[in-house]
Amino acid sequence: MRPRIALPRFDYAYVLTLCLLLLTGGCATVQTDPLPAWNGGKAKQTVVGFVAKVTTQGSPDYVPVPERIATFDNDGTLWAEQPMYSQLLFALDRVKTLAPKHPEWKNQEPFASLLKGDVKGALAGGEKAIVEIVMATHTGMTEEEFEVIVRDWIATAKHPRFGQLYTSMVYQPMLELLAYLRANGFKTFIVSGGSIEFMRPWTEKVYGIPPEQVVGSSIKTKFELRDGKPVLMRLPELSFIDDGAGKPIGINGHIGRRPIFAFGNSDGDLQMLQWTAAGGGARFMGVVHHTDAVREWAYDRQSSVGKLDKALDEAEAKGWTVVDMKRDWNLIFPFEAK
Amino acid sequence: MRPRIALPRFDYAYVLTLCLLLLTGGCATVQTDPLPAWNGGKAKQTVVGFVAKVTTQGSPDYVPVPERIATFDNDGTLWAEQPMYSQLLFALDRVKTLAPKHPEWKNQEPFASLLKGDVKGALAGGEKAIVEIVMATHTGMTEEEFEVIVRDWIATAKHPRFGQLYTSMVYQPMLELLAYLRANGFKTFIVSGGSIEFMRPWTEKVYGIPPEQVVGSSIKTKFELRDGKPVLMRLPELSFIDDGAGKPIGINGHIGRRPIFAFGNSDGDLQMLQWTAAGGGARFMGVVHHTDAVREWAYDRQSSVGKLDKALDEAEAKGWTVVDMKRDWNLIFPFEAK
Lengths: 338, 338
What we know:
Oligomer: homodimer
Order of helices and strands of chain A: HHEHHHHHHEHEEHEHEEHEH
Largest interface: A-B, 47 and 48 residues
Radius of gyration of chain A: 23 Å
């Protein structure tokens, strides 16, 4: 702080004015575009219009700050999910790392195919194969040990197409949207089908979303004393699948309030969007439509990852906001700007 | 605000100083006791000393704001739990209300005893009887319907001994402590064995703790479309018991960070306190010891409600802070002050 006693009188008035502006929030009247990576079409207008009406005191749509709950799917909504969910790529890497300790995997599917490099063959076993891979790689250690494993992987593993860290494969327009909502008093949550403990180690740094605002799928854990020190052991047993109809259940269980704003990108988000839409007052429901095969990927109704079919129909029928990635976003990944 | 233009020079400096104090948080140097209902003994000193050291920049014990997680048990820690948990009294009231629709209850325990006014007989069936009563009264409706039932009860039901609303049976020193922690950048959570949906309708108003910061026991719910409108139906199936070893599991599942501050009052809080104690850096573990039979109740090792035995031994052995209600609190319930 500059020594106050040496300031001439006009400086007092100037600093005082600055102080008052800061105190009264008057600085907010200096407007800059909070969503520069969004082109100025209908999607952006709808977002900005919604935020304006729910935050304007005296507006019939005004929503008090504590009720400004916004939920976001993660895979395909906040970060890329192609060619495969990042968590599955993590699990595949873990299988390779753990293989020396599991000689039996050489003759046991889905591990045998995986270790031969035949990912497609391994995943031919469908959900059962995926659950087996996840259980073999995500359980049997303490929560703290698993967190270290996730942190190490996420800090080093690179995306097969872009050669970027997975935490760089996030959508710049969504980072802006998260920050914009928070600047307007919203509490932002992730509601993802991914494992809660796969996301929490990095969501605060990458999205500004703290661990306690991450809702996801989970396994069971067990409290134990190990040499007098309490630990939570990760058990190979599913506890909750936070996908599809599980999303409103997860929202109810973790948040206990209905969102007024929700964003997804696939049929797994349909019930979250329906749940959000069914509340009283102003609502925003958004769907990211992957339409840009050049800068990202183009996929929807036929995709095995992030299938968007029923939710696209319902979004169109109900007038929800569908973001056309190619048309609506002038920047997709932050690294493109460099 | 007084018109600035008319102010003589010294007033500018005064207002400026005030502004700067507000901006820099310097007003905190104007000290008033944040915990007036706490007598100035060791318990209060330990709380204040802990908060000072974890919030002082440059202190070796400094904890960044996002990591300042404080968890509180509810029954017996934030509000009274005698002569019986409030939620159980709520369930008993519900049995009476619902009895006309359940003629079979006249010949079916634990309902038959209850309806004859024999609460002790009804609860003689132990945990099984309690679960039956809870399931019969807490499930079979939507989440929204249950919320209305809780709101109605909590707004009207009176405590049998004090004749006060249950939301008035809260501990003034703990209300002060919650506010004090929040003023120092802590995020305050409830971690209770009680049902999450029994607490959420009123914790924000009573404790300043929003629904998303309430962790508790839960039942399963099912997402359904009813005439096209999504609802969450409450199923008669336990999902999670947030008590004892369940508390660290609940904390991990909901919060995803280890608390640095935890307060409980019974053996059901022991593992939460152990879990908190086992983290690195400065920690605060507190236990409310009910020692005041005149103003509240005196009970510990032999009590069927809020038994405090092992946790009292461990608190004493480990040097955790044990609040002696009679000695340490000069006011227990807010209504005493009137």
